[in-house]
User: Fold these one by one.
Assistant:
Number 1:
Amino acid sequence: MIRLYVEGILNVEKSVVLTTAQEHYLRGVMRLRDGDTFIAFGNGEEFVAEMPGKIIEKTNRVDMANNAVLAFCPIKPSRLEEMISAATQMGVAKFQPVISKRVDIPKMNFDRFRKIAIEASEQCGRLSVPEFLPAVKFQELIKNVGKIYYGDERRVTIPSGDKAVDLPAGEEFTLLIGPEGGFAPEEFAALDDAGAIGISLGPLVLRAEVAAVAGLAKLLS
């Protein structure tokens, strides 16, 4: 069934307020007519709605989003968009841009990022859309965030090379992915001093958007 993310609070017997673009998509692209049904979701809940927008019932599906925060150093826009789409499908709850030493302060199009995250959420079946946090400097992140894991290219794939990964159920954690060119030596030292846990993503050099998916898969498994 067609799924649409809808802003605001959804309740049975209320009507979904569709945007002009959503109205066009349902009627002009998907050819729905009055009385046809679609899925409306948001805030971790999902409802069956009937055209032109009346909510009929709440589904019993549970949101499969998790407690991961993906902290990323901005990369080329097209590749960053791939990262956002893939990480949304992995269930990430929040995106945290990080400005590290080897990152030029970028102009980030958060409206575009959110649109990509919404489309990925509609496609993958989650019941919420990830949140985008304001960019922070590297030192601010490691000083103020609790449990941080990071892709450590200094490691290779050796079982004993990683510290134990312990993710208590329901507890938020952050995966930090470095910039093109990797972290600077002093940043590695700062991560180690802050108690962040480096994890191996294998013996090959991964692009940041691939490293994000590999790191999430490793932690969430």
Note: The helical segments are 20-29, 77-89, 110-124, 138-144, 185-193, 208-220.
Number 2:
Amino acid sequence: MTNAYCDLDTLKSAGALNISGNAHDRRLLNLLEEASRLIDGYCNRHFYVLETTRQFEANWWSPGLQQLLVPDLISVDSARVAAKFDGGAGQPKWRTASYRLYPMDASPERAWGRPYTRMAIEPVCTPLCRRTDCHALVEIAGRWGYRLDLVETGATTGAALAAGDTTVTLSDADALAPGHTLALDDEQVYVTAVAAPEATLERGVNGTEAAAHTTATPIRLYRYPGPVSEGCLQLAVQLWHTRDRAARGFEDPRRPAGEAVDPGRELKSLVAAYRKLPL
């Protein structure tokens, strides 16, 4: 997944690596992306917003709303349920299902919110069903992740953008940096380089589709929890120094060759509040 929880300008700043020039930009951006995935793995969740459809298998023994544990969920576009078929030629027959999301005070589309983790959903069974081994498939289309926190950058597109374009003219290039994930209408784009007044983009990321956008389309920025962004920065700095030392023949003798970098006690304490048990 192409995504970073911290941007390249912050990593290169005097408060972090204090690097000038752009000779190592691609390598540094890769480190931010790798650090972000390490944080996802440690926390057993992801903090970017993924738009996709997922299916779950459920076993229900009684009619009425049933509980379904789900990965971090922000919003639902549609929910369907079908009886599980037994490997024959037929396909499951889907029907739209009623549902409720819990916890009810989660508010994942607020800057302070947290995700939904449970769904009470209407099963395939009807009150007249007498089976005791109901197997069902549940299909949920929506946005997945810890929260949806979008902030205005103040910048807009300076020219129309076609679905296949990978560079965009900006009204204010200083508002963006490589590593940012942006919202252009309903499309997510990932910034890989900025050279005012243009930015280079990876289009249609995180499950969204590349689309055309008009001139003066507002550009919004996906923002992540502060400890997660700070943890990404610290881990990327650690990775940089580790690889730099290895390149100069100063491999850490305490860690066996090829062993993954340990995020460290300080980093773990930063993101400890966001860690959860895997489903």
Note: The chain is about 20% helix and 30% strand.
Number 3:
Amino acid sequence: MAITKPSIPKGTRDFSPAEMSRRNYMFDIIKDVFRTHRFLPLETPAMENLSTLLGKYGEEGDKLLFRILNSGDFTRELKPSDLGNPAATATKISEKGLRYDLTVPFARYVVQHRGDIVFPFRRYQVQPVWRADRPQKGRYREFYQCDVDIVGSRSLLNEAELVQIVDKVFDRLGISVTVKLNNRKILAGIAQAIGHADRMMDITIAIDKIDKIGMEAVCEELAAREISPEAIGKLKPILKLEGDNTAKLNLLKNSIKESDTGLEGIAEMEKLLGYCCTLGLDGNLEVDLSLARGLNYYTGTIFEVKANDFQIGSICGGGRYDDLTGIFGMPDTPGVGISFGADRIYDVMNGLGLFPEEATVTTHVLFLNFGPAEELAAMKELAAVRSAGIPSEIYPDSAKIKKQMDYANKRSIPYVVIIGSDELASGTAVVKNMRTGDQQTVRLGTVAGAVSM
């Protein structure tokens, strides 16, 4: 029998114990901020019915859905005529897919459980999502999102609170960021002002790629989507408006003055910026008129967060989606949310060396094992150290001391406790600091105090 070389799918990763310790450090901070703002935890299944997912992310998003083959004979409903029609074939062999994000499943949950929910409903969710994208640096096929959403309120106070959460999370993680803001109503006003009010989705899908492919390539894509040269000529100076946030919005008012929707978006942006100024959060906010976030469900404010000191795509994003639950039969339920891209945040922290030492040390104390009598004393002391909340372990075998010390060094364990025959006779233990080489002798029963974190 041939031996299969072990591997994992492209765009996915294994995480070692040290990596998981750092990831848990990051997740714990994010969750703590969410809980401080009184969001409630929620989980949804990894797979959803395709009827739930399709059509919610736009044409680009639908292409990136991972589909799951039906159980059993998944070809049983196929006809020869279907084989020439990929769309018909896909529908008949696959009814479920891996979730693309956490927002659409959350909207489905809200509608399905509306009788049990008290509105406004505030939830947080930390789970993996999947996208059939081309793997590259900072872009994975399986990755974690950390979402907070508020459903059942149109107040812009909710957007301001999300900006506050972003500020707290990245401040505690030590990452300097810029929060980019725009409003889909402003984008609708721009589309109207350039004479293509009916082509807003084509325009937003294209301009959402400016950071990736540049302005000229975006203009070429707009032309390929049959946006007229005159319209593209009007669009370019709008996207290049300069100045501080107030100056940009004042200049924009003149450019889209004929669009009531666009002016409404500007008014919302000004109000949100006012809230953020009151909270002292305006220092890292930037109005970015090229920000589009090309998902179909956004209707108002949109956010995107970029790390200032590390080259990577957005590490957080979201916005308002006042109509999302309507597609599941529950209209007029406004919502707004933001998603932290945990894997990109991890890459930023790792690249900048922002993880503290305690985030990588899984064991703080190792008790050496010298035989039956000594290990019983060590186990008793170990129990006391663990009761003090200190991560600790005992070497399971009575091996040579060099082997046990090598184990401690390879695991980067800060402290080793030695209870040999001499120590056992005198009722003491030797505590060695593996980083400095210093040793101290303490009474049994007091080791926890000598190795406190």
Note: The chain has a mean pLDDT of 91.
Number 4:
Amino acid sequence: MKKGIFFVMLSLFLVFLNSMILIVSIVILNDRLSTVRDRCLAEHYVIASSLIGDIQALEQRGNNAEEKIDQLMSSYIRYLQGKGSGLAVAFSGEWIYKSSALMPKKNMDFPPDTEYMQERIVYMENETSPILCVYGSFPEPWQDYGLMYIGSLGDTVSSWRHTKNILFLMGAVMMLVMAFFLLQFLNFIFRPLRQISSASAKIAGGNYESRLSVQGKDEIASVAHNFNLMAEQVETQIRHLQDIAEQKQQFIDNFSHELRIPLTAIYGYAEYIQKVPVTEEERYECTQFIMSECSRLQNMAYQLLDMALLRKGEMEMEEEDCSVNVLFEQSGKVMHVKAAEKRINLSYVRTGNFLIRGNMEQLLILLNNLIDNAIKASQPEGEIYVSVYSEESGIAVEVEDHGIGMEPDQISHIKEAFYRVDKARSRAAGGAGLGLSICERIVQLHHTELTFVSEPGKGTIVSLHFPQT
């Protein structure tokens, strides 16, 4: 593109420059020819006036001017000597005197016809050498006479050609200078485009941190600024896609690990029953363990299905004003039994009748998952408090336990699928690490905020912040 612009602009400049030089040359030539023409007219007038006086003097003395013409013209030839000019005299349509070798051939036989009028004809001849001719008839009673003044244009044309050559030489020099500065200018103009191309190539090669330097406030700076914004967006999107890909890979790895353990146990016990003679009691224990692992796999499948439905928005979502007291009552019917199995005291603290906007079924899943995690994290004889209170931005529901707690880096991963703080304890309790992933999606659907405050060995407080209805 740069080469094309360079040659186009240089060609246009060359055409413009040569046209201007040609126009200037023509103007100079016309000016010089006009000067020579005026000089020749002046010389012709002076000589013709003087020659008329000489002819009149000869005729008054009784002499024939036609016979004495050579003698009369000798003084004028001396006058013109060195000027490169010549004279010719005509009488009755014939030349009676010719002094110059510059005499035009086409007028050698007959001088120009002026019909005996006092007119002067100016014309140019260009046979061997350019000349300027001025011819005019004399006034009465000498109208049969005519004088031609012949001026050489060789020096004038030669000088003009020299001037023209200098102009074209200067034009060539100007063209070279113009080509140099045009190339530098295009390099300067296209430098940001080269930088954009280079940065684009780096980004295409995987270097998403490449940026352009923004200088000034012109259009090029605006393009560089917009390119940097685009590069930042591309880098952000690429990193987001990389994070998603990493999370998906981690999900697959964790899912494969979660499947491997129960399937290995099921296969092992089934093979044991098939190949080893066992008593009815041992057979019962083996089948009981197989059923337990199958139940865990079934629970995992249901949780994965719930996650998929929540992600696609296909799970039924009919919002209504839900009473927190009713939510606590329905949750207590299920979770009190589970807490009692571990001898944990589960308390629901109500300080008023609060209403939150949402789907009762999903809110119940959300709250029960949080309480279930608190039960798994608590020691036997521990305590868990579920409370609700009003805050400036809305209503908060908290689940507080005094269990094992979490480190700060663990809190940043607990919402990931299959992630568990205490893997051995969670697996023994039948957990697959999907509960909080489901909770996070329900929270997003309800435009709610889920926060964690935890300290290792002291417990965890999980808070749900609902907007005001």
Note: The chain has a mean pLDDT of 79.
